[in-house]
Amino acid sequence: xxxxxxxxxxxKELEKWLKSGHDTTLAGLTKLFEEKSFAIIFLLLMALxxxxxxxxxxxxxxxxxxxxxxxxxxVGRKTVWLPKKWLKxxxxxxxxxxxxxxxxxxxxxFENLSRQRWSGLLAQSWMLSLLGVIIFILTLxxxxxxxxxxxxxxxxxxxxxxxxxxxxxxxxxxxxxIIIGVLGIALEIAAGTALYSGITHFL
Length: 203
What we know:
Layout: H1 10-20, H2 26-32, H3 37-50, H4 58-74, H5 84-87, H6 91-94, H7 97-113, H8 125-144, H9 153-168, H10 171-202
Helix pairs in contact: 1-7, 2-3, 3-4, 3-9, 4-8, 8-9, 8-10, 9-10
């Protein structure tokens, strides 16, 4: 039997934190959202390549951090470890007001559609490790996408969806995120194949 609808609190809590102006760094995030730190770090860092915003090359940094955190999830760590330099990254400043509003709006839409479907499955250590592997692969796909090609968007959006699934405890959204991510990888491979064929045709 499905559990009642998830209360719409996370989007409001996140919005309040981003607007607070008080320690919106990764260190502040891990302190505030202890039990959900892994998922929220994935969400905020991969929102940068998933959203149509100028990043000035910052996405490679956030993707590297995401992959490091993924490895910790895979091996079963319960708390996030990051180098002190990375903990000082200010997520609140990296997201413009417009982008933060868009992100919160997306989260609210997920909250409206979400139910706590098979939430117990997402608490299993083996499932968290598996999702860590999937998120790592999708993040790597976003990382290797050619700059300014837009091919990193779908893999990153897949990570965002899976992260929201972990936060909202909805296994169905995990499946949606995986499908989005796989489509992104397929598109990336297709584009790479077409480019290779075009180059070899003229050689």
